[in-house]
Amino acid sequence: AGIRCPRAHLLQMHVLVMSFIGTGAVAAPRLKDAQLPLARLRGAYSEMLLILRTLYQTCHLVHGDLSEYNILVHEGELYIIDVSQSVELDHPLALDFLREDIAHINAFFRRAGVATLTMRELFDFVVDPSINDDNIEAALEQLRTLAGSRPLQRTAEEEVQDSLFSQAYIPKHLDDVDDHEADFQRLAAGGAAAEGIYYQGITGMRPDMSGARDAPMLLAQPPSTSTAPELQSGNGKCDASRDASGDEATSGSGSDDSSDGSGDEEWEERVGKGMSKEERKAHKASVKAANRERRKTKTPKKVKQKAKKAHKK
Fold first, then answer.
1. d(CA 91, CA 56)
2. pLDDT of residue 61
3. What's the whole-model pTM score?
4. Between 171 and 272, whose confidence is greater?
């Protein structure tokens, strides 16, 4: 598959003899100890994106323990070791192990000063079946743009979103989805109602679940509609007036209509064009009803605040 790793020479019962990675009798350093310059680390992160995808798509494996401790640097190249505990894709915990590998890789490179992707962005790149040799370079360029658009210091909300994603159930196939129609409606409602639906990438569906994709998710939508946090123009800081789900922050009063009418004028300008007065009125009513439903499933503020406090500690 083109992934650099030790070669197996002999297998006898439980003993496996493999090639030595190093110079002379000196073993190659782990990525953790290699002290690579920042420019090389940026390149190494891009290489790891491809290695994760190749393991999944070509080798049909998930490493399961991939981190800076199981990557060697020899003659300027990355070598993957300790693959013996890897699992095949039909393992019931394969996607859990994949998310752990992604978390470890992101954490190391972020500490080293490299701009990284969110867990979901990297996960979707690895599992997306519509990425191929013809569009993979464009997908990688889109990922670099996404990562480079953010400050290195992650916000507590980003940490919360990664935590929620790492623990969520992700169906591998559409047959494993309980209610496609309900998920489609939740995505159409947007905001908090769409939280927890993460299987579009792995099943080859469009982000809004309206049908099958014929292009990678990264290329099927502009960067501004991605799961990335909204950025203020020019200064690279996250917009504090919005939470990670894209909803405007509220005062916490809990009123069903406290935030439904605040954007009426903006809604008229963006969505209401071409509609009659009766149609606009009916659409607003449906939006308000959808907002009330999504608040029933929205992550409680207490949960998010606890996660923020834990992150600060």
1. 12
2. 96
3. 0.68
4. 171
